[in-house]
Specification:
homodimer, about 350 residues, Rossmann fold, six-stranded mixed β-sheet, 13 helices, globular
């Protein structure tokens, strides 16, 4: 069965491989509608535990290499486009260097993508709950002004965009995906960071009585990330400072707190904007709660690494890293791998059919 | 049965009331020895859930008031000494004002105490595991140089010190317990704070591969607390800056990391100092994991409140508060109480027989 955009979809599943093959996935989306038992065209398996460790420790290119090699064989040498859909910064370089800018290329380009979507995977991975908000941002790595994209890569990306637009997605094609990555990471590190720290869904950190403690920290995290961005050449023309307010308000507007006037409770009739499901948790927290490696490195550590190189202090960010590193190290050790002290780049890149993450 | 110091001990128990009455408590201590099935002289009950909420929401004086009233009745008006054994700062004022410096006093004084002891309560509250390290610090509130203690209070405190010294405790009587509170909170906020954030025992945050992420944050937390202390009149003569290194090294020395020389692993023969059991977790983390209200307010929020009043930035501390406040608020709400935005003072004071906490 095809997706609503007309594409054949191959899903690489881990723990939900069997149920997805049998029953498909039920999509309940405010924006995209209700799709009971939707079946991908193909479901392929990736061995669970091994892959988890692999994701974390191996370069991302190693994960997609076998898929690309078999594709190139089937298509008699025609190179595909790799679309990375993942949070974080500094995630594409290794992929580009080893798969595109090499003597034996396996892809004609790297499209770097971000999805803004609050989804929750339920019922053993067979049901997706989604609200009304969704946006897909994508552009080439390296930025087109530095390296002109290959013509075939341009064609493939436009085709990909057309398919998912037909499927109902709102797509923004950008010449500066790097700036958009920093823009999105503003959410992941701040509201996402406080959810991660407190192990709570967004709704809980927006309770009126905890907002004096959570909201200031969320905003401080955004300011730290902006300072690192500026020190690394992402200037006002690429990422305006007003994004801090945008990202802040986007989530804070979902609290009931602002709308209740204690002096006159009858004024409390305005309802908050509801973009996310009530129990929505950022993917990094879901990973942590399920005992999987998290996207700590691309989201938090890569920014901290840039901060150290450019002398920007990031105390709030550092505290989040201190909060999650021991978990991550313990987990990797339990998987039988020797952990290192290095900042990992790109531990969980999702290429050719990666799961949407927020 | 008396304690080894010769005192009659009344234990107020919650969830472990029945088992402690029946089987007593088994103490396994490196410092204090093995005491199988030790029975307190009396075990009194305090209703579980109610008390938990009460502790958190009510002034501490309300918790001890009934005990004190019945004591005063029995002893024909002779006033007892209240010994508070609890972490944190700014915890005594309410107790002193309502029980001592009042028209109808119920106590002749407030002794403010701190215990440095890494204990773990196991087997449904019937077994205490303890290492080699223990120290009890105590002094009068207000400080004697501000208010001369009552003669009877002096006598009672000396008697109390004699009893627990006979029992094997190492006691330090101090004229400046306030400075010692700040000194101890250096540990609670820093190493304790990182354990709390990461939900890990001390040993896990000292793994060599995570130390680059945890130790800097621990030290930064100490520096923030010192800055708040200085801004609040705790000067070098009362709390030397070298305490930061002392508190830092006390725990960091328990890591194996320092003793392994990668260039020559044969040098790795030195063993780290072992003061705490391997799986030791700070009490605030144990409370959190067991779904009980935590000492967030006396340990963290009271410092943050002082920091705000004196204009000292505390980003690491604020991040910890953001991490735990949502849990605390959710819990209080689930107990059917209306939470407030105020900084609580003294939420879990342990008076007349409180549990040792680190």
């Amino acid at each position: 069965m095809c997706g609503t955009g007309g594409a054949e979809v191959t899903a690489a599943c881990r723990s939900n491989y069997n149920v997805v093959r049998e029953k498909g996935i039920t999509v309940q989306s405010g924006k995209l509608g209700y799709h009971p038992n939707w079946h991908p065209t193909r479901v392929v398996k990736s061995a669970d535990e091994v892959d988890v460790a692999f994701d974390y420790l191996a370069p991302a290119s190693e994960i997609v290499r076998p898929y690309l090699e078999s594709h190139v064989q089937r298509s008699s040498g025609k190179l595909p486009l790799v679309v990375m859909i993942q949070n974080g910064v500094d995630i594409e370089e290794e992929m580009y260097r080893t798969l595109v800018a090499t003597d034996k290329p396996l892809a004609c380009g790297i499209a770097s993508g971000l999805t803004w979507v609050g989804t929750t995977l339920l019922d053993n991975g067979t049901r997706i709950e989604h609200g009304n908000f969704e946006r897909f941002e994508v552009g080439f790595y390296p930025l087109p002004r530095f390296v002109k994209p290959d013509a075939e890569a341009e064609r493939l990306l436009d085709e990909f965009i057309e398919i998912i637009t037909c499927g109902g997605s709102t797509v923004v094609k950008s010449d500066d995906i790097e700036a958009l990555r920093w823009s999105k990471i503003l959410w992941n590190t701040s509201w996402g960071g406080v959810c991660l720290l407190s192990r709570q869904p967004v709704a809980e950190i927006l309770r009126p009585e905890v907002m004096p403690y959570t909201c200031g920290v969320a905003r401080s995290l955004m300011c730290e990330v902006m300072a690192v961005a500026r020190a690394n050449g992402i200037d006002e023309s690429r990422l305006p400072m007003s994004r801090v307010d945008d990202v802040y308000n986007m989530t804070q507007s979902q609290s009931t707190a602002l709308f209740v006037n204690p002096a006159d409770p009858s004024c409390a009739s305005r309802v908050p904007t509801t973009l996310l499901p009530d129990d929505f948790k950022p993917s990094i927290l879901v990973d942590l709660e399920r005992g999987r490696p998290t996207e700590l490195e691309p989201i938090f550590c890569n920014i901290a690494a840039r901060a150290r190189r450019t002398g920007v202090p990031t105390p709030h960010l550092d505290t989040i890293i201190a909060a999650v590193k021991p978990y991550q190290a313990k987990l990797i050790a339990s998987l039988g791998h020797k952990a290192t002290n290095e900042y990992h780049v790109n531990p969980r890149a999702n290429a050719v059919g990666g799961a949407p993450v927020i």
